[in-house]
Write a structure and sequence with these properties.
The chain is α/β, with parallel strands linked by helices and 304 residues long. Helices cover 37% and strands 22% of the residues. It contains ten helices and 13 strands. It has helices at residues 40-50, 65-77, 119-126, 140-152, 169-173, 182-189, 196-208, 247-260, 265-280, 292-303; strands at 4-7, 11-17, 32-38, 55-62, 84-87, 94-99, 105-110, 131-134, 156-159, 177-178, 213-217, 223-227, 230-234. It has a nine-stranded mixed beta sheet, with helices on both faces. It has a four-stranded mixed beta sheet with strand order 3-2-6-7. Helix 1 (40-50) packs across helix 8, helix 3 packs parallel to helix 4 and helix 9 packs across helix 10. The chain is globular, with a radius of gyration of 18 Å. The chain binds adenosine-5'-diphosphate. Residues 181, 217-220, 223, 236-237, 239, 241, 244, 247-248, 251, 273, 276-277, 280 line the site of adenosine-5'-diphosphate.
Amino acid sequence: MSRLAVVGSYNASMFFRGERAPGPGETVIGDGYWLSAGGKGSNQAIAAKYQGADVGFVGKLGADAFGDEAIAMYCRVGLSTDLILRDGSAHTGVAGIFIDAEGANRIMVCPGANLKLTAAEMVDGARGAALAGFQLENDLSAVAEAICALRQRGVQTLLDPAPAAPLPVEVYQNLSFIKPNEHEAAALTGIAVQGADDAFRAADELVARGVGCAIVTLGGGGVVAVGRGLRAFVPALDVRAADTTGAGDVFCGALMAGIVAGWPLLASIEYANCAGALSVTRMGVLEATPDRRETEAAYAAWRA
Ligand code: ADP
């Protein structure tokens, strides 16, 4: 059993680039197309793998060509496919992303097989791990049930509450860690989060609901962490951001890698903060995901 189980989604992301996105009833001719691996769970599992973590991805794909391509991609990046399930009754998750000349995007996601991953399958896949990481791109009630069941079995649990959705109170009580960005922290707590002071208030509220430690990321505005003996603000690295897509997934993957490696929590957060910063300096998500060598170098430079 892997030390880290990342339970979550995979989406084949199809990018269509053109002068402008189509409006209702309209067909427009684009000038670029590419296919990329996406889905928060998959991205985070790969980000943790790139950091050298012993990680398994617990997810569900359709028995179709996009599912085959995902398996081939995991083999290329060296991520074990042992915990990945296939479902012939559903399609692999897909996302269609239209990008216009201004770089604005419109996205439609059809989750398909991601919604077929059951609580029992999540628990089976993550049973015996030191830490199980979740996001909210699978069936919400299955995620909630699995978090509670795994925590009761002594597995540490981490939730990246994206996309934000109201959570049952027992989920908070069974989370070792929660890692919202500022928008998700605001959606969960009702506290408008516009900086570190607000983030501390939102994190306090999440801890009051029963979470062990709340880690609120503020993009280029730093990270706030409250709980498990911490009350810390970690400033963002001063980098030139080229593409912030997937920064939260890279941060989360590196954070989980640090936790299962047994590092102190603050060091894990600082290290993840360096991984997130590296990722925003490059375009794409997987292509922008840093490995352990460069993250360690950035972390050493940041500490110096
Ligand atoms: P999400 O991608 O979930 O919206 P954030 O935007 O908060 O998450 O980014 C996650 C992490 O990525 C940040 O905490 C930080 O470590 C890093 N990051 C994001 N944007 C920047 C930036 N402009 N400069 C430096 N680091 C950044």
